[in-house]
Amino acid sequence: MADVTLRDVARASGCSVATVSRVLAGTRPVGAETARRVREAADALGYRPNHAARALRSRSTGTVGLVLPQITNPFYPTLVRELTHALHAEGRAVLLADCDDDPAAEAEYIADLLSRQVDALLVIPAHEERSREAVRAAAARVPLVLMDRGCGPAVADSVAVDNTAGMALVLDHLAATGRRRVCFLGATGSASAAAERRAAYEAGAGALDPGAPDRVALGDFSVEWGRAAVDEVWPARPDALVCANDLIAIGALQRLQQLGADVPGEVAVTGFDDIPMAALSAPGVTTVRQPVTELAAEAARLLARRLAAGEDGPQRAIRLAPELVVRESSVAGDAAGAGVGRQRTAAP
Q1: Is the Cβ–Cβ distance between 239 and 222 less than 8 Å?
Q2: Which of 30, 70, 132, 303 could anchor a disulfide with 151, C-beta 3.0 to 4.6 Å?
Q3: Is 326 within 8 Å of 173 (Cβ atoms)?
Q4: Are 41 and 9 a contacting pair, CB within 8 Å?
Q5: CA torsion, points 287, 106, 307, 348, in degrees to nearest 10?
Protein backbone atom coordinates (compact mmCIF):
# COMPACT_ATOMS: atom_id res chain seq x y z
CA MET A 1 0.00 0.00 0.00
CA ALA A 2 1.29 3.45 -0.89
CA ASP A 3 2.14 5.82 1.94
CA VAL A 4 -0.78 7.94 3.11
CA THR A 5 -0.13 11.62 2.45
CA LEU A 6 -1.43 14.88 3.89
CA ARG A 7 -3.45 15.27 0.72
CA ASP A 8 -5.21 11.95 1.42
CA VAL A 9 -6.06 13.07 4.95
CA ALA A 10 -7.28 16.42 3.63
CA ARG A 11 -9.58 14.71 1.13
CA ALA A 12 -11.01 12.34 3.77
CA SER A 13 -11.57 15.10 6.34
CA GLY A 14 -12.90 17.72 3.95
CA CYS A 15 -10.21 20.19 4.99
CA SER A 16 -7.39 21.88 3.14
CA VAL A 17 -3.87 20.46 3.13
CA ALA A 18 -2.71 23.53 5.06
CA THR A 19 -5.30 22.95 7.80
CA VAL A 20 -4.37 19.28 8.08
CA SER A 21 -0.72 20.24 8.38
CA ARG A 22 -1.48 22.73 11.15
CA VAL A 23 -3.54 20.19 13.11
CA LEU A 24 -1.03 17.35 12.89
CA ALA A 25 2.02 19.54 13.51
CA GLY A 26 0.33 21.57 16.25
CA THR A 27 1.86 24.77 14.91
CA ARG A 28 -1.26 26.94 15.04
CA PRO A 29 -4.60 26.75 16.89
CA VAL A 30 -7.43 25.14 14.95
CA GLY A 31 -11.11 24.77 15.89
CA ALA A 32 -11.92 21.73 18.02
CA GLU A 33 -14.37 20.23 15.52
CA THR A 34 -11.96 20.69 12.62
CA ALA A 35 -9.11 19.18 14.62
CA ARG A 36 -11.31 16.20 15.55
CA ARG A 37 -12.21 15.52 11.90
CA VAL A 38 -8.57 15.69 10.83
CA ARG A 39 -7.32 13.37 13.55
CA GLU A 40 -10.11 10.86 12.95
CA ALA A 41 -9.32 10.83 9.24
CA ALA A 42 -5.59 10.43 9.92
CA ASP A 43 -6.25 7.53 12.30
CA ALA A 44 -8.65 5.83 9.91
CA LEU A 45 -6.17 6.06 7.02
CA GLY A 46 -3.19 5.04 9.17
CA TYR A 47 -1.30 8.27 8.44
CA ARG A 48 2.21 8.47 9.82
CA PRO A 49 4.27 11.68 9.54
CA ASN A 50 7.37 11.59 7.35
CA HIS A 51 9.97 12.95 9.76
CA ALA A 52 12.70 13.00 7.13
CA ALA A 53 10.64 15.14 4.78
CA ARG A 54 9.62 17.43 7.62
CA ALA A 55 13.26 17.84 8.62
CA LEU A 56 14.17 18.90 5.07
CA ARG A 57 11.41 21.49 5.05
CA SER A 58 11.94 22.88 8.53
CA ARG A 59 15.67 22.24 9.00
CA SER A 60 14.74 20.57 12.29
CA THR A 61 15.07 16.84 12.94
CA GLY A 62 13.03 16.78 16.15
CA THR A 63 15.88 14.94 17.89
CA VAL A 64 17.98 15.71 20.95
CA GLY A 65 21.31 14.02 21.63
CA LEU A 66 21.98 12.80 25.17
CA VAL A 67 25.54 11.90 26.21
CA LEU A 68 26.02 10.03 29.49
CA PRO A 69 29.22 9.17 31.38
CA GLN A 70 28.16 5.63 32.32
CA ILE A 71 24.74 4.05 31.83
CA THR A 72 25.58 1.28 34.33
CA ASN A 73 25.29 3.79 37.19
CA PRO A 74 21.69 3.14 38.38
CA PHE A 75 21.04 6.88 38.77
CA TYR A 76 21.24 7.50 35.02
CA PRO A 77 18.57 5.07 33.67
CA THR A 78 16.02 6.80 35.91
CA LEU A 79 17.13 10.18 34.59
CA VAL A 80 17.00 8.93 30.96
CA ARG A 81 13.43 7.73 31.49
CA GLU A 82 12.31 11.10 32.84
CA LEU A 83 14.12 12.99 30.07
CA THR A 84 12.58 10.78 27.40
CA HIS A 85 9.11 11.46 28.78
CA ALA A 86 9.69 15.22 29.08
CA LEU A 87 11.07 15.57 25.55
CA HIS A 88 8.49 13.24 24.00
CA ALA A 89 5.78 15.50 25.37
CA GLU A 90 7.33 18.26 23.24
CA GLY A 91 7.44 16.05 20.14
CA ARG A 92 11.17 15.32 20.37
CA ALA A 93 13.04 12.01 20.26
CA VAL A 94 16.25 11.21 22.15
CA LEU A 95 19.44 9.76 20.67
CA LEU A 96 21.51 8.23 23.49
CA ALA A 97 25.28 7.78 23.72
CA ASP A 98 27.27 6.29 26.63
CA CYS A 99 30.93 7.36 26.73
CA ASP A 100 31.94 5.00 29.58
CA ASP A 101 33.62 7.82 31.53
CA ASP A 102 36.07 8.49 28.67
CA PRO A 103 36.32 12.17 27.61
CA ALA A 104 37.86 11.19 24.25
CA ALA A 105 34.94 8.87 23.47
CA GLU A 106 32.58 11.57 24.72
CA ALA A 107 34.01 14.06 22.19
CA GLU A 108 33.55 11.50 19.39
CA TYR A 109 29.93 10.86 20.37
CA ILE A 110 29.20 14.58 20.51
CA ALA A 111 30.66 15.01 17.02
CA ASP A 112 28.65 12.05 15.74
CA LEU A 113 25.40 13.41 17.15
CA LEU A 114 26.07 16.81 15.60
CA SER A 115 26.69 15.12 12.24
CA ARG A 116 23.22 13.56 12.57
CA GLN A 117 21.77 17.07 12.76
CA VAL A 118 20.34 16.87 16.26
CA ASP A 119 18.48 20.04 17.22
CA ALA A 120 20.13 20.21 20.66
CA LEU A 121 22.34 18.34 23.13
CA LEU A 122 22.07 17.27 26.75
CA VAL A 123 25.43 16.32 28.25
CA ILE A 124 26.48 14.89 31.60
CA PRO A 125 30.22 15.50 31.25
CA ALA A 126 32.65 12.73 32.08
CA HIS A 127 35.34 15.15 33.30
CA GLU A 128 35.11 18.76 34.42
CA GLU A 129 38.28 19.84 32.59
CA ARG A 130 38.90 17.31 29.80
CA SER A 131 35.28 17.46 28.58
CA ARG A 132 35.26 21.25 28.38
CA GLU A 133 36.68 21.80 24.89
CA ALA A 134 34.25 19.45 23.11
CA VAL A 135 31.27 20.70 25.10
CA ARG A 136 32.11 24.36 24.53
CA ALA A 137 32.52 23.80 20.77
CA ALA A 138 29.18 21.96 20.58
CA ALA A 139 27.42 24.67 22.58
CA ALA A 140 28.51 27.17 19.92
CA ARG A 141 26.62 25.16 17.28
CA VAL A 142 23.39 23.99 18.95
CA PRO A 143 21.51 24.66 22.20
CA LEU A 144 23.21 22.59 24.91
CA VAL A 145 22.38 21.94 28.55
CA LEU A 146 24.75 20.37 31.06
CA MET A 147 23.08 18.08 33.59
CA ASP A 148 24.13 16.77 37.00
CA ARG A 149 27.77 17.81 36.45
CA GLY A 150 29.49 20.93 35.17
CA CYS A 151 32.38 21.88 32.90
CA GLY A 152 33.40 25.13 34.55
CA PRO A 153 31.80 28.58 34.26
CA ALA A 154 30.47 30.18 31.07
CA VAL A 155 30.25 26.98 29.03
CA ALA A 156 26.50 26.31 28.69
CA ASP A 157 23.18 26.33 30.53
CA SER A 158 23.23 23.83 33.39
CA VAL A 159 20.90 22.15 35.86
CA ALA A 160 21.96 20.01 38.83
CA VAL A 161 21.13 19.23 42.41
CA ASP A 162 22.62 21.54 45.04
CA ASN A 163 25.37 19.20 46.24
CA THR A 164 26.48 21.59 48.98
CA ALA A 165 23.00 21.77 50.46
CA GLY A 166 22.66 18.00 50.21
CA MET A 167 25.85 17.37 52.14
CA ALA A 168 24.77 19.90 54.77
CA LEU A 169 21.58 17.89 55.27
CA VAL A 170 23.64 14.75 55.88
CA LEU A 171 26.02 16.41 58.34
CA ASP A 172 23.20 18.11 60.25
CA HIS A 173 21.43 14.74 60.56
CA LEU A 174 24.55 12.99 61.82
CA ALA A 175 25.20 15.77 64.33
CA ALA A 176 21.63 15.53 65.60
CA THR A 177 22.03 11.78 66.14
CA GLY A 178 25.25 12.24 68.11
CA ARG A 179 27.85 11.18 65.54
CA ARG A 180 31.27 12.79 65.79
CA ARG A 181 33.96 10.52 64.33
CA VAL A 182 32.74 10.88 60.78
CA CYS A 183 34.68 9.88 57.67
CA PHE A 184 34.05 10.69 53.99
CA LEU A 185 34.23 7.98 51.30
CA GLY A 186 34.35 9.72 47.93
CA ALA A 187 35.66 9.57 44.38
CA THR A 188 38.84 10.88 42.85
CA GLY A 189 38.90 12.76 39.54
CA SER A 190 37.39 16.07 38.66
CA ALA A 191 33.76 15.26 37.93
CA SER A 192 32.10 18.28 39.49
CA ALA A 193 29.63 16.27 41.59
CA ALA A 194 32.49 14.36 43.25
CA ALA A 195 34.46 17.54 43.90
CA GLU A 196 31.46 19.50 45.20
CA ARG A 197 30.37 16.77 47.61
CA ARG A 198 33.89 16.33 48.97
CA ALA A 199 34.37 20.10 49.36
CA ALA A 200 31.03 20.43 51.16
CA TYR A 201 31.99 17.64 53.54
CA GLU A 202 35.36 19.20 54.29
CA ALA A 203 33.75 22.60 54.86
CA GLY A 204 31.04 21.34 57.21
CA ALA A 205 32.43 18.30 59.04
CA GLY A 206 34.59 20.39 61.36
CA ALA A 207 31.46 21.34 63.28
CA LEU A 208 31.19 17.70 64.40
CA ASP A 209 34.88 17.12 65.14
CA PRO A 210 37.98 19.21 64.30
CA GLY A 211 39.66 16.15 62.80
CA ALA A 212 36.71 15.13 60.62
CA PRO A 213 37.57 17.22 57.51
CA ASP A 214 40.84 15.30 57.17
CA ARG A 215 39.20 11.88 57.38
CA VAL A 216 38.72 11.37 53.66
CA ALA A 217 39.24 8.26 51.51
CA LEU A 218 38.92 8.52 47.72
CA GLY A 219 38.34 5.88 45.06
CA ASP A 220 35.48 5.82 42.55
CA PHE A 221 31.68 5.75 42.45
CA SER A 222 31.36 1.96 42.81
CA VAL A 223 30.21 -0.78 45.18
CA GLU A 224 33.67 -2.31 44.96
CA TRP A 225 35.30 0.88 46.24
CA GLY A 226 32.79 1.08 49.07
CA ARG A 227 33.89 -2.36 50.26
CA ALA A 228 37.59 -1.55 49.91
CA ALA A 229 37.18 1.83 51.61
CA VAL A 230 35.83 0.21 54.77
CA ASP A 231 39.00 -1.87 55.09
CA GLU A 232 41.01 1.34 54.71
CA VAL A 233 39.21 3.39 57.37
CA TRP A 234 37.77 0.85 59.81
CA PRO A 235 40.88 0.56 62.02
CA ALA A 236 40.20 4.16 63.13
CA ARG A 237 36.67 3.12 64.17
CA PRO A 238 34.60 5.98 62.67
CA ASP A 239 31.06 6.23 63.96
CA ALA A 240 29.68 7.45 60.60
CA LEU A 241 30.64 6.89 56.96
CA VAL A 242 29.49 9.71 54.69
CA CYS A 243 29.51 8.26 51.16
CA ALA A 244 29.58 10.37 48.00
CA ASN A 245 26.93 8.20 46.32
CA ASP A 246 24.67 5.25 47.07
CA LEU A 247 26.84 2.67 45.31
CA ILE A 248 29.72 3.44 47.68
CA ALA A 249 27.31 3.30 50.63
CA ILE A 250 25.93 -0.10 49.60
CA GLY A 251 29.44 -1.52 49.23
CA ALA A 252 30.37 -0.10 52.64
CA LEU A 253 27.31 -1.72 54.22
CA GLN A 254 28.18 -5.08 52.70
CA ARG A 255 31.71 -5.00 54.09
CA LEU A 256 30.62 -3.75 57.51
CA GLN A 257 28.17 -6.65 57.75
CA GLN A 258 30.98 -9.07 56.85
CA LEU A 259 33.07 -7.56 59.65
CA GLY A 260 30.21 -7.96 62.12
CA ALA A 261 29.80 -4.21 62.73
CA ASP A 262 26.52 -3.00 64.18
CA VAL A 263 24.80 -0.62 61.72
CA PRO A 264 23.58 1.89 62.84
CA GLY A 265 24.43 1.24 66.51
CA GLU A 266 28.20 1.22 66.07
CA VAL A 267 28.49 3.11 62.80
CA ALA A 268 26.04 5.03 60.59
CA VAL A 269 26.23 4.97 56.78
CA THR A 270 24.81 7.60 54.43
CA GLY A 271 24.70 7.88 50.64
CA PHE A 272 23.72 10.33 47.94
CA ASP A 273 21.28 10.14 44.95
CA ASP A 274 18.56 7.76 46.30
CA ILE A 275 18.86 5.12 43.59
CA PRO A 276 16.31 2.25 43.91
CA MET A 277 18.91 -0.03 45.51
CA ALA A 278 19.19 2.37 48.46
CA ALA A 279 15.68 1.56 49.65
CA LEU A 280 16.02 -2.17 48.91
CA SER A 281 19.25 -2.81 50.80
CA ALA A 282 19.20 -4.18 54.35
CA PRO A 283 19.38 -1.91 56.20
CA GLY A 284 17.96 0.77 53.93
CA VAL A 285 20.40 3.56 53.16
CA THR A 286 19.90 7.07 54.51
CA THR A 287 20.59 9.23 51.49
CA VAL A 288 20.13 12.53 49.69
CA ARG A 289 17.35 12.28 47.14
CA GLN A 290 17.88 14.03 43.83
CA PRO A 291 14.66 15.49 42.30
CA VAL A 292 15.07 13.52 39.05
CA THR A 293 11.70 14.44 37.54
CA GLU A 294 12.32 18.13 38.17
CA LEU A 295 15.89 17.80 36.87
CA ALA A 296 14.61 16.41 33.57
CA ALA A 297 11.81 18.97 33.33
CA GLU A 298 14.17 21.90 33.93
CA ALA A 299 16.62 20.59 31.33
CA ALA A 300 13.83 20.22 28.77
CA ARG A 301 12.57 23.71 29.60
CA LEU A 302 16.01 25.27 29.14
CA LEU A 303 16.39 23.56 25.76
CA ALA A 304 12.90 24.58 24.68
CA ARG A 305 13.60 28.25 25.46
CA ARG A 306 16.76 28.24 23.40
CA LEU A 307 15.15 26.36 20.52
CA ALA A 308 11.94 28.40 20.43
CA ALA A 309 13.51 31.82 20.29
CA GLY A 310 17.00 31.11 19.06
CA GLU A 311 17.89 32.71 22.37
CA ASP A 312 21.45 33.95 22.83
CA GLY A 313 20.88 35.49 26.26
CA PRO A 314 22.85 34.90 29.45
CA GLN A 315 23.52 31.34 30.50
CA ARG A 316 21.49 29.91 33.35
CA ALA A 317 22.78 27.74 36.18
CA ILE A 318 19.92 26.12 38.06
CA ARG A 319 20.45 24.24 41.31
CA LEU A 320 17.62 22.11 42.60
CA ALA A 321 16.65 21.40 46.19
CA PRO A 322 17.80 18.05 47.61
CA GLU A 323 15.87 16.06 50.21
CA LEU A 324 17.27 13.90 52.99
CA VAL A 325 15.65 10.47 53.20
CA VAL A 326 16.33 8.90 56.59
CA ARG A 327 16.46 5.10 56.70
CA GLU A 328 17.80 2.40 59.00
CA SER A 329 21.49 2.78 58.09
CA SER A 330 21.75 5.87 60.30
CA VAL A 331 18.96 5.57 62.86
CA ALA A 332 17.10 2.62 64.32
CA GLY A 333 13.41 1.88 64.55
CA ASP A 334 10.69 4.53 64.27
CA ALA A 335 13.13 7.39 63.66
CA ALA A 336 13.72 6.15 60.10
CA GLY A 337 11.50 7.34 57.29
CA ALA A 338 11.65 11.07 57.93
CA GLY A 339 12.57 13.49 55.16
CA VAL A 340 13.98 17.01 55.32
CA GLY A 341 13.78 19.32 52.31
CA ARG A 342 15.55 22.51 51.22
CA GLN A 343 14.69 25.26 48.79
CA ARG A 344 15.97 25.46 45.24
CA THR A 345 18.67 27.97 44.43
CA ALA A 346 19.21 29.31 40.93
CA ALA A 347 21.44 31.81 39.18
CA PRO A 348 20.85 34.07 37.43
Answers
A1: no
A2: 132
A3: yes
A4: yes
A5: 50
